[in-house]
Amino acid sequence: MAGYYWPELRSPNPDWAAIAAAFQPAVMSRTAGRSLSSYRTLADGVTESRFDDLSVVANWNANSTYSTDGFSIAPSGCLARTDDGSVVAGVFVDTFQGTALGKGVHYLVIERRAGAVLVRQPGGPDTSIAIALPSDWDLSNGVMVQAVNRDNQPIATAPATVSGSQASFLYMRSLAGVPVDRYEVSPVGQAGHRFRRRVLLYREESASARSASQVCRGSSHFPNNTVRTSDRSSQPLCYSYCFVPFQLF
Fold first, then answer.
1. Average pLDDT value for residue range 19-28
2. pLDDT tens, 118-155?
3. Which end of the chain is flanked by fewer CB atoms within 10 Å, N or C?
4. What pLDDT, in 10s, does the model give residues 179-223?
5. 3-state class of 208 per DSSP?
6. What is the mean pLDDT of residues 53-65?
7. Which helix (H) or strand (E) holds 98?
8. Hey, where are the domains in the chain?
9. Structure confidence at residue 7 (pLDDT)
């Protein structure tokens, strides 16, 4: 069963429910029904588990980071990514994809969907972030970065800078007093399709969550045995232990 080890059980992260809700459809659902393809030790206290095209590097060291491919994995953190780059997620400090992050620990989930890249930070302070853009995008007119709330409504457009195949912007978890669920990055020429695409994206996410979710019974972490999120059609989410780093128990 997929789960994670949390060394600070006495001090639960207040963002835990949001972190679980963000990682479940993007990462954990990809391990459902899949066998462990391979498992290896990368360094002392660092392992890599593979589930077909999904690689999960887990840093089991509670007091030290682990760096690989431009990512600085936080102590007791992880890096999960697919071979095609459509999903990059994990728990990071200092650097992400070779660019600097703000201070603190950052829980990040980056997903490529049709015509858009979705960026979520369900846990961690505001930070500048640079993300890789799909190679088939026409960037001649730049990109639009749209902040979206939990009710799937746009909040504001964030200034962005494009350099080569990367887009950089300031990820703020709240704008004008409204919590930000995610930022959607899309080529300016495709921005007109953004609202219709958003509905389709959430239909896909809800179906993915349904396929991998279970109802937790007798869990002290969840009132009424479930965690429900308004932006994912109130799908029940179930987790054993905690969430980072990924491992097979």
1. 92
2. 999 999 999 999 999 999 999 999 999 999 999 999 99
3. N
4. 999 999 999 976 444 444 443 343 344 444 433 333 333 333 333
5. helix
6. 96
7. none
8. 2-248
9. 53
Helix (H, G, I), strand (E, B), or coil: what is residue 193?
helix
* Cα angle 7-9-10, degrees, rounded to a multiple of 5: 125
Give the containing element (helix H, strand E) for 175.
strand 174-175
Extract the tokens encoding 95: 């650097």
Dihedral, CA atoms, 227, 88, 57, 121, nearest 10 degrees?
Answer: -50
Q: How far is CA 202 from the centre of its chain?
A: 15
**Any idea what the Cα angle at residue 91 is, between residues 30 and 76, rounded to 5°?**
100
Which residues lie closer than 8 Å to 203 by C-beta, 6 or more apart?
none
Instruction: Quickly tell me which residue has 């690989």 as its tokens.
Output: 68
Measure the CA–CA gap between 63 and 83, rounded to whole angstroms.
29
- H-helix or E-strand containing 112? strand 106-113
Pull the structure tokens for residue 139.
């960037």
Dist. CA 195–CA 201, nearest whole Å: 10
Q: Are 138 and 208 in contact (CB under 8 A)?
A: no
Tokens of 196: 């219709």
Indicate the length of the chain as a whole number: 249
| Structure token digits, residue 215 | 């109802």
